[in-house]
Structures are given as C-alpha cells and as structure tokens.
Amino acid sequence: MGNILNGKEVAEALKQKLKVEVDELRKKGVVPTLSIVIVGDRADSAAYIKGAVKRCGEIGIECNVTELPQDLSQNEFIEVIHRQNADKKIHGIMIMRPLPSQISEDVVKYEISPAKDVDCFNPINVSKVMSGEEGGFAPCTPSAVMEILHHYGIDPKGKKTVIVGRSMVVGRPLAMMLLKENATITICHTRTINLAEETSRAEILIAAAGKIKMIKKDMVKEGAVVIDVGINFDENGRMCGDVDFDEVSPAAGMITPVPGGVGAVTSTVLAKHVIEACKMQS
Ligand code: NAD
To answer: What CA dihedral angle connects 113, 118, 124 and 130, to 10 degrees?
Structure first.
C-alpha cells in the first residue's frame, strides 16, 4: 500500500545516522552506555528491554541491565540510582515503569540525574518538554511519533491535530511537542463529548488511548494522516492498535500500521537520546 508510514524504514534511517555518531565517539575512546533498571519481573518490561538491548547493540551502544528484587525498598532503590548517577561510564539511565507500590514514582523521579534521564522521568525534563526549552530529553514514544512525521516530511504547522489520550507518557508531551511545531492541537480523553466529531476534523489524528480498534472509518477525515500509538492484543493474541486499520487505511492519506509503526521507532529514539547524553557528558 502506498499510504503506509513505515516505522521500520524510519528506524533504519535513524539507525544508520546514529551508527556514524557512535563510531566517532568510539574513535575518541568513548563508549556510549545505557543502564536499564528494572525492579521485579514484568513480561511487558522484559519484552521492551529485549528490543532495546538488541537495537542499542546494533548501533554500538553498550547496554547494562540491572535487575532488582520486587521487594526492594525505596531507599535501596534510590541508592542504586545515585550510584549510577555518579558512574562516569553510564551516560543514560532508563527506569522501567511501573515500579512496585512500595517505591513512589512521585518521590524517586527527582533522584535520577536529568542529564542521564533519557526517557523523561525527572520533572526537570518534563518541564523542558512543556515549555519547549531545548537541551532536555522528551519521552521516547512521543519522540518516535515526531521522527515519523519528520521522516515523511509531514509538517504539522497550522494543521488541525487531534490527539486521543492525555497520559504523561504519550498524549500530553506529544501535544506540547506538536505545539512547538505550530500544530493546532485538540486533546481528547475519556470525558470528551462526541469524540467522533473531534477526530473527524483532524488533518493529523493521533490515537494513544490503549483501546483496541476504537478509531473507525466514520471518525476519520478523508485524506488525514493517522498515527496509531496503541499497542493492544486481540482475542487471537495478535498485536493491533487503537485504529481499525482495515477500515481506516483506504480513507486515510497516510497511516502507521501496528506492528511496524510507532513501536518500531521507540527503541531507536532511546538510542538517539543515549548518544545525545553521552555527547553532553564527554
Ligand atoms: P494510559 O492508559 O495511561 O492513557 C490512555 C489515555 O487515553 C487516557 O488519557 C484516557 O483518557 C484516554 N482514553 C482511554 N480510553 C478512551 C476513550 N474511549 N475515548 C477517549 N479517550 C480515551 O495509556 P498510555 O500509557 O498513554 O498508552 C496509550 C497506548 O499507547 C496503549 O495502548 C499503550 O500500550 C501504547 N503505548 C505504545 C508505546 C509504543 O512504543 N508504541 C509506548 C507507550 C504506550
């Protein structure tokens, strides 16, 4: 199909650029290094880590995974983070969330060094995304959406852009990143009255609700750019997005598939952030 926004293609192009940057750093004796910290076992986190380790390896980034016990106390967790903040060999730290309930995200988010916070956990980086200030790290998933738009030359300037979802991981930061590029933003959520009326106005429609195939053909404007951030599994265990792809793709101008869309770009964006962190620290 000619209207597919292919995440794998975007990730591959970015990977080639990043490999050159890593080669240059390694020639200077600097090995960009990411630390991934996970507390307890979670199947979704394990799958994410596997993908991130593989992608970082292909690019030449060293990746260390610290697996901590499920019953780790908050203070012990903070000690680990402080040690990694001080470790000059580590340039980026990614903390897998959600954390177990004895560890408060609202407490520990202040402890990760903003300079190493490659997935925007520390409020200093969140504030930079909100204000549009340069020099911080935006969360990887909304950054992956922006990479796709840039790769395909889709300029959000002035466009009616509707985002379904207002989470701190996707919807909210993405709205700010698009606003920085002068999109005209509407954010929809569970309390939105007449969602279809809002979405069908969109020239760029972004679904990040986590509701399987909720975006139907009659909710999409003919020719719209449709970006599907959702990762859901149908009754047969097949991965699918928030958009009913079979129904919507003939009407959409351009559309990301699931899998092979936004999710295919996220770990490469993480690698990009580690390299940026490494350059800032070296
Ligand atoms: P979340 O549950 O924290 O937030 C979902 C948001 O969608 C909420 O703001 C809610 O108000 C809104 N919403 C839910 N149902 C709705 C409905 N029926 N109508 C309108 N709004 C509705 O989820 P999240 O962490 O933001 O993730 C969203 C989706 O993106 C999930 O499917 C998740 O798996 C996926 N995700 C993908 C990646 C990736 O790399 N592609 C990364 C993170 C999350």
So the answer is: 180
Q: Examine residue 5 and state whether it is found in any structural domain, yes or no.
A: no
pTM of the model: 0.97
Domain of 230, CATH number, reads 3.40.50.720
Say if the ipTM goes beyond 0.90: yes
* Structural domain containing residue 223: 140-263
CA of 34 relative to ligand 1 center, distance in Å: 26
Report whether residue 230 contacts ligand 1, using a CB cutoff of 6 Å. Answer: yes
pLDDT by residue (tens digit) across 39-66? 999 888 888 999 999 999 999 999 999 9
Which residue's CA is minimally distant from atom 19 of ligand 1? Answer: 190
Q: Is the CB of 167 under 6 A from ligand 1?
A: yes
Q: Locate 219 and state its tokens.
A: 């909710």
Peptide bond preceding 114: is omega within 30 degrees of 0, i.e. cis?
no
Dist. CA 258 → ligand 1 center (Å): 14
